[in-house]
Structure formats: C-alpha cells, structure tokens
Amino acid sequence: MDLIATPVRLSTAEATFEAQFTARLHWSADTDAAIEQRVAGILADVQQRGDAAVLEYTARFDGLTAASMHALELTQAELKAAFDTIPAAQREALQAAARRVRSYHEAQKKANGESWSYRDEDGSLLGQKVTPLDRVGIYVPGGKAAYPSSVLMNAIPAHVAGVGEIIMVVPTPKGEKNALVLAAAYVAGVTRAFTIGGAQAVAALAYGTQTIPKVDKITGPGNAYVASAKKRVFGTVGIDMIAGPSEILVLADGSTPADWVAMDLFSQAEHDELAQSILLCPDAAYIDAVQEAINRLLPTMPRAEIIAKSLTGRGALIHTRSMEEACAISNRIAPEHLEVSSRDPHRWEPLLKHAGAIFLGAYTSESLGDYCAGPNHVLPTSGTARFSSPLGVYDFQKRSSLIEVSEAGAQTLGKIAAELAHGEGLQAHARAAEMRMKKQ
Known about the structure:
Elements: H1 17-25, H2 33-49, H3 51-62, H4 76-85, H5 88-109, E1 116-119, E2 125-132, E3 135-139, H6 148-161, E4 165-169, H7 179-188, E5 192-194, H8 198-207, E6 217-219, H9 224-233, E7 238-239, E8 247-252, H10 258-269, E9 276-281, H11 284-297, H12 304-314, E10 316-319, H13 323-333, E11 337-341, H14 345-348, E12 357-360, H15 366-371, E13 397-404, H16 407-424, H17 427-434
Parallel strand pairs: 3-4, 3-6, 4-5, 6-7, 8-9, 8-11, 9-10, 11-12
Antiparallel strand pairs: 1-2, 2-13
Helix pairs in contact: 2-3, 5-16, 6-7, 8-9, 10-11, 10-12, 16-17
C-alpha cells in the first residue's frame, strides 16, 4: 500500500476553526502519576546512593553494564580520536558550523538586551529580535507580613521590558487588605489584581479561569505551597525561580559596629523561622561582640520570637582563619544576600563569585536593597546563585533568532548543512538545503 500524508485542512472562515485549531496545537507536558512516582524514586535513589544507583539504572534502562562510572566517562582522547576518524568533509562541516555558532553568540553577548543583527561575508543577515512577554502574573506574599516592595520589584521591570498586561495576585487573610500593597500596585502600574494566594493562585495564572486570564510567566516568591505549584506548572508557563527561605551572609573584618551586623542578621531572621543568617569573620572577639549585641537587641524586636527561632535553628557565627577563607566559604554557600562589611570591601569583591546580591561596605545594609537602592530584591536562594540571577528586565523578554540567508550564502551553508544532515541520517534536512544550491 502506498503511504499517504493528510495534514488537516483548516480555514479561518469556518465557524469551527478556533476549536479545530486549538485541538491541533494542544500538547500536554503532564505525565501520569505512575511516571511521576517512578521518576521521584529514581531521583531520590541517585541522591542517596550516587554512582551505584546511576550504574544500576544505566544497566537496566540502557542495557549498558559497567563496573564503575569511570568506565562510562568519555576521555578527551576519545573525543579527539572520534574527530580524527570521521570523514574529512564532516570534520570541516563541524568546524565551519562551530565557527559560525561561536561568532553569533559572541555578538549576542555584546547586545545588552537590545535587538541586533549583522551581515556576514555572503550578505546573509543574522541577529536576534528581543520582544516583551504579552502577559505576566506576579505573586506577592501576604501571609506573615505585607510586601509592597515585592509589588514594585516584580511589576516595574515588567513595565520597563514592555509587558502589555500585568496580573497581580496577593493573599489577604481574613479579607484584610494592606493599603500599602494596593498603593504599590497602583504606583507600579499593575493591570489587574486579585486577592487570592497559595497554589490556587498559581494554578489560576498558569491555566486561566473564567475570570483570571492565563499568563505567559509567573514571578514572585511565596511559601512552600506556592513554590511547589510554580515548579509543577513550569512548562505550561515560565517561572522566574523556585524561592526558598530568605538568607543573609555577612563577611566582616571586625571594623563595623557589632550592633549594625547583629541587626542585619535580624533583618533576614525576622522573615520566618526557616530564614538563615550567617556571619563569617576572622576576628573571634568581634564574633563575641556580635553575639552580645544579639542578646541585648533581641528583646527590643517586635518579631523577637521568630528571630530567635531562626537564629537558633539555622543561624551561624563562623570564625574563619582569614577573610580569604571567608570568601571561599561564601562562594560555597552562594547566598541570596551577601554583605561585605569591611574597611575595604573592594579588596574582597573580586574573590566573590556566587551571590544573588552583593552589598559593599558598612553603610550598605541589606535592607536598603530590599526597598529602594534600585537593584531587584527577588534573588536566587538555596545556593541557586551559582547558576541563576536576580529578577530583571531580561526575565520579561524573550528572544527570537533572525536568519536571512542570501543566495550566495545558501551555496556555502547548504554544503555544510547537507553534510551534517546526511551524517545524522536526516535526508529531508539535507535535500531541503541542497535544493537551494545551484547545480554544479
């Protein structure tokens, strides 16, 4: 029997177009409960047993048995040997493609968030179009405290990016609305706002309801339920990050008044009992002074009970051998907020690689960054500053690659693409490129 292909035929003039079109586009990233449970088991097993678990699953699912993980690791020599053994045409095609990809991404690195393009020697145009998201949802916490600053920090960069519609959700326990939060929404230009919170608010933003429009991305921190919900809807919508408890790490050389540092530690501890406040300092006497300040100032704090539980359960005052060692430990922790409370903070800043925000000098309290310094206070937590960044305009934009190949370019690129496509066994890819090449 001859094979046939029958793509669906649709017409926008038909009354059923929207339903048919939507059905054609529909694809769900959701997996069934059995798969979720199985994946969860594998993740937990690898986390607990490490290499042994990876070897076991590799043998079971890939049919590849190895005595150790070293046997599964490809050496640089093996990679080089593979390069040396493939046909010369494939080597040249790989290298030519790599040069072009590298050149493009070097241009991307210099673009500073703006659209850009350039033409290569064949007259082909390559570039990137930067456009804002159409609609975003911002989650503003509203449980143990009110956070008007979070409204500003989420909505304003969205506005600057050019987002068309900003939907705010904020819980109002027992119906108590915080005027400062609502005022901040007005100042920041929030489009619509709903007094809902928790996982249900995340779901409403992600999927849309009869009243709440579906958004393209959800930003803003929340409690454990909010974090779990954001993780689960990722893929249906974008998210900024999974936020954990608030953190502060202070690197001190002993020159800042101990009361100041103690209060800075309080400033995160008062968020909730799971918040973490850490001091790293090479001066043992200064650490004693900070502890004394903690004892003296704690009774004066309205949220003393929360601060005490946080500092007792998760806080740390760490005596280091040097400021250099303190910087190294800080990089391992990758804290959300990092204060460099020293006489010469710029001496230590080059040593600090991982932090959500770095506050330089004794006068730069973390609280100034929370409210009004300018940089965003929505920051990576739980060590994720090793690979992620503060919320910014870039979180509310997406990028489309621009490619316009000239006739001359089609001759050069067609040869490269066809060679690699044939190597991958994708003949239609190769033929599509070859059809645009002039007959030799």
